[in-house]
Amino acid sequence: MAASDESPMVRPTVQELTAAGVEEPPRQYVLPEQDRHGDLLAADEFPEPTPLIDLSRLTDADEAERLRAALQTWGFFLATNHGIEDSLMDAMMSVSREFFRQPAEEKQKCSNLVDGNGKDYQVEGYGSDKVVSEDQVLNWSDRLHLRVEPEDERNFAKWPSHPESFRDVLQEYASRTKKIRDLVLRSIAELLEIDEDYFVNQISNKASGFARFNYYPPCPRPDLVLGLRPHSDGGLLTILFNDDNVGGLQIQRDGRWYNVPTKPHTLLINLADCLEIMNNGIFRSPFHRVVTNVEKDRLSLAVFYAVDAETMLEPAPGLLDDKRPSRYRKMLAKDFVAGLFEHFRQGKRFIDTLKI
Ligand SMILES: O=C(O)CCC(=O)C(=O)O
Ligand SMILES: [Fe+2]
Fold first, then answer.
1. What is the residue-wise DSSP string for 152-199?
2. Residues 214 and 300: beta-carbon distance below 8 Å
3. Is the distance from the beta carbon of residue 214 to the nearest atom of ligand 1 less than 6 Å?
4. pLDDT(236) > 60
5. Atom number, ligand 1, closest to the C-alpha of residue 238
6. Element (H, E) at 101
7. Four-CA torsion 270, 276, 281, 283, nearest 10 degrees
8. Is it the case that residue 249 has pLDDT exceeding 90?
9. Is the CB of 212 under 6 A from ligand 1?
């Protein structure tokens, strides 16, 4: 195969590789043995109890305590009664599937490469990871990445026009996830006994929100590749909706990987790195990855909420005192994002390098 940074348009998408019936993943996708952490497919079953939180009951002390336990143990939870009707979730999943089912030419209309020469990679659009070096290991997934916040910066030129309802469904969906974001951020602030609006107030009207549709085609060798390499999310909070009946997401705790359970119409909500810093490491941002399988494709939609690029990342003043100094070096959010991508490509957790 041609060197991918010279001719990325020639590099097929993962979906095309699968459709062509490749029996072995091309070498760019194969993880070096030391990065497979032993056997990629030998994760542990998720221990009971599943961190399932009823978002409509967070004002009850019991439910709030369950949220605390979930965040302390895992940094994520599965949310029920989150306010998004099943019908809207089904519509969101269905238009997303329809997008990826379209012929390549149709999807390329939303391409994240401006002119096909590979030098003009954009954050937004359809495609795959930016390739910066020959030895970069690629993820076994394609994606569509769209800005949803700030609302007036939505770039509809990159949004699919087929299926026709895609745009309306995503706009409605994103208006709901934004409400969920604020509800969860307020609940977390309350658990930490700081001003309930502290985290919400960190999000200026310039802060970004991105919807990332991850499409994971089946893979002939799930023992050699990852759908998504290990990472923690960089922003404040992530709201993830994934296929109910296809597992694949794994979360690491104390050095072990666990298969994350799925449940129809729930949302998986996880802390991201900036919130870990702002809460001074009391609740951590989970390290996670996605494994593939030989039979089924899988789709997920992550909505990432971030702070503004100029925000100074530091713990909330109410969480600092002489006995509990800051655990992280201060950094501007934009510098954090720059470092994050470099570490992401190497499968490392950037936030750990900021620990004091
Ligand atoms: O597909 C998934 O379940 C996880 C996706 C994810 O971690 C991400 O997009 O950051
Ligand atoms: Fe993630």
1. GG--GGGS--SSTTHHHHHHHHHHHHHHHHHHHHHHHHHHTTS-TTHH
2. yes
3. yes
4. yes
5. 10
6. helix 86-101
7. -20
8. yes
9. yes
Ligand 1 and 181: CB distance under 6 A: no
Ligand 1 proximity of 144 Cβ (cutoff 6 Å): no
Q: Per-residue DSSP letters for 13-54? A: PHHHHHHTT-SS--GGGPPPGGGG-S-TT-PBPPPSSP-EEE
CA of 214 to the centre of ligand 1 (A): 7
The tokens describing 261, both together, are: 């359970």
Digit-coded pLDDT (tens) for 85-132: 999 999 999 999 999 999 999 998 988 887 655 557 788 899 987 787
Least confident segment among 109-123, 171-185, 243-257, 308-322: 109-123
Instruction: Give the C-alpha distances (Å, rounded to integers) separating 313 from 97, 187, 223.
Output: 37, 20, 38
Asked if 227 and 16 count as a contact pair (C-beta separation under 8 A), the reply is no
Chain center to CA of 52 = 19
Q: How far does the centroid of ligand 2 lie from the alpha carbon of residue 233, in Å? A: 5
pLDDT in tens, 149-198: 999 999 999 999 999 999 999 999 999 999 999 999 999 999 999 999 99
pTM of the model: 0.94
The neighbouring-strand residues paired with 84 are: none
The class of domain 14-354 in CATH terms is: mainly beta
Ligand 1: which of 46, 142, 240, 266 to mutate, most ligand atoms within 8 Å of CB?
240
149: part of which helix (H) or strand (E)?
strand 142-149
Closest CA to ligand 1's atom 6: 302
Q: Is 249 in the pocket of ligand 1 (CB under 6 A)?
A: yes
Find out whether the beta carbon of 129 lies less than 6 Å from any atom of ligand 1.
Answer: no
Ordered by start, the domain boundaries in the chain are 14-354
Q: What is the mean pLDDT of the chain?
A: 92
Which bound ligand lies closest to the C-alpha atom of 262? 1
